[in-house]
Structures are given as structure tokens and as C-alpha cells.
Amino acid sequence: MKNLIRGHIYQLKKDHFFFGCLAFSFILLIVSIRYSSLESALVPVMGIESLIGHF
Fold first, then answer.
1. Residue 23, exposed/middle/buried by CB under 10 A (0-12, 13-18, 19+)?
2. How many Cβ atoms sit within 10 Å of the Cβ of residue 36?
3. What is the pLDDT of residue 38?
4. Using the 8-state DSSP alphabet, how is residue 47 labeled?
5. Using CA atoms, how far apart are residues 29 and 36, in angstroms rounded to an integer?
6. Of the candidates 3, 46, 5, 54, the residue with the CA atom closest to the CA atom of residue 30
7. Is the pTM above the cut of 0.90?
8. How many angstroms separate the CA atoms of 25 and 29, rounded?
9. What is the distance between the alpha carbons of residues 55 and 48, in angstroms, rounded to a whole number?
10. What is the arithmetic mean of pLDDT over 1-25?
11. What's the mean pLDDT in 19-42?
């Protein structure tokens, strides 16, 4: 079982597409957080609605 997991981790390390998707999703996350913070500056939202808005 350890070898199977180790083999999959090795394949992910060698896969450039995986790291590309990971970087793209990270950039998209940063942009969406920035966009939501700019939106909340115009119309302040408090409480649980703000928390749900971030996720």
C-alpha cells in the first residue's frame, strides 16, 4: 500500500499539467478573494453572509 501511494505521488511530481492546474486554481482563488473584498467595500456585509460570501 505504501508503494502504491508513493508511486502516485511520484507521478504527480513529474506531471506538469497537475502543477499548472494547481497554480491556475491558486491564482483564481486569490482573484476571487480580492474581488469579493472590493465588492464588500462598496456594500458592507456582516456576519454569516460575509463568511458564506468568501466560500
1. exposed
2. 15
3. 66
4. T
5. 11
6. 54
7. no
8. 6
9. 11
10. 90
11. 82
Mean pLDDT, range 30-34, rounded to an integer: 84
> What is the Rg, in whole angstroms, of the alpha carbon atoms belonging to the chain?
18
Residue linked to cell 500500500: 1
CA distance 15 to 13: 6
Give the model's confidence band at 22: pLDDT under 50 very low, under 70 low, under 90 confident, else very high.
very high
Q: Residue for cell digits 453572509?
A: 49
Rounded CA separation 53/27 (Å): 18
Q: How far apart are alpha carbons 12 and 6 in whole angstroms?
A: 10
Dihedral sign, CA of 16, 22, 23, 25? positive
Rounded mean pLDDT of 2-20? Answer: 89
